[in-house]
Amino acid sequence: MIDLHHHCLPGVDDGPGSMAEAVDLCKMAADEGIDTIVATPHVLRGRWRSGTRAEYASILDELRSKAGTPRRILLGSEYFFGHDMDEMLRNESILPLAGSRYVLVEFASHAIPPLVREPLYRAQLEGWTPVIAHPERNLVFRSNPEILASLLRIGVKTQVTTGSMTGDFGKEAEAASIDWLQRGWIHVMATDAHNTVKRPPRFQTARRRVVELAGEEIAEALFSENPKSIVENRGLVYDPDIPDVTGTKSKPLFARIRKLFPR
Ligand SMILES: [Fe+2]
């Protein structure tokens, strides 16, 4: 299995503070059946200084040699959304997931800024596919899921946290995860691991839950096949169409006119 969202690089953000802790995190991930991690340090202006690709690659080399497991540890980032996303991609301030054309994008947990659709769409016109990190932990997406659905309909993908599926992020995040799983709104499950104690890289319990709720085939897609497609920069294996959640179809123009001018 592949974990596409994991803060295993030591000393660069709110992930592990030391190399020893990072090694423990990688070993714990391997014990959960994860054979590939994509390291996703935060790109969050003003809070942490974002490192360069070369700096991260050097830390990653050391981690690979010290941890020895999982089989692969690749490089990406988790970009905190800004309206200049396309510019940030062009100047390589954002590291895409494993060198692919997929980009992990997060929002604050309590808000979605206005006019998010356009930059997310513009990025796609330049060949990128935004993957929204943990939408189930965002208050606005939870209380108005149509906002999320409108992004899905323009081609944005989602990554839900394994801990949300098992209730570790509260009842609301769990309920949204289950609801969206059943609607076909989730493309990838990932740990968003930060440390071995409070934010550990747990996969197995969440995978069992997904099997119970949606079946083995979808669990395989969310934990293995879709992440594999992203790492290999291909289209997703599991990528359902998203119908209008309101269930209302717009009526043909003549029908609306007839209602305005009844006989
Ligand atoms: Fe994260």
Question: What does it look like?
Answer:
By secondary structure, this protein is α/β, with parallel strands linked by helices. It has a single domain, classed as Metal-dependent hydrolases (TIM Barrel, Alpha-Beta Barrel). It is 41% helix and 14% strand. It is built from eleven helices and nine strands. The strands form two sheets. A six-stranded parallel beta sheet has the order 3-5-6-7-8-9. It has a three-stranded parallel beta sheet with strand order 1-2-4. Strand 5, helix 3 and strand 6 form a beta-alpha-beta unit. The protein is globular and about 50 Å long. The C terminus is likely disordered. It binds fe (ii) ion. The site of fe (ii) ion has 6 residues, from loops.
**Looking at this structure, what is the CATH superfamily?**
Metal-dependent hydrolases
Distance between the termini: 63 Å
Q: What series of H and E elements makes up the topology?
A: EHEEHEEHEHEHHEHHEHHH
Oligomer: single chain
Do you know the CATH architecture?
A: Alpha-Beta Barrel
| Major sheet | 6 strands, parallel
Number of β-strand runs? 9
Structural class category = alpha/beta
Fraction of residues in helix? 40-55%
Quickly name the level 1 CATH class. Alpha Beta
CATH topology: TIM Barrel
Q: Give every kind of bound small molecule, once each.
A: fe (ii) ion
The helix count comes to 11
- Overall radius of gyration: 19 Å
Q: How many domain regions?
A: 1
Spans with pLDDT under 50 lasting ≥5 residues? 248-263
Strand content: 5-15%
What is the overall shape?
A: globular
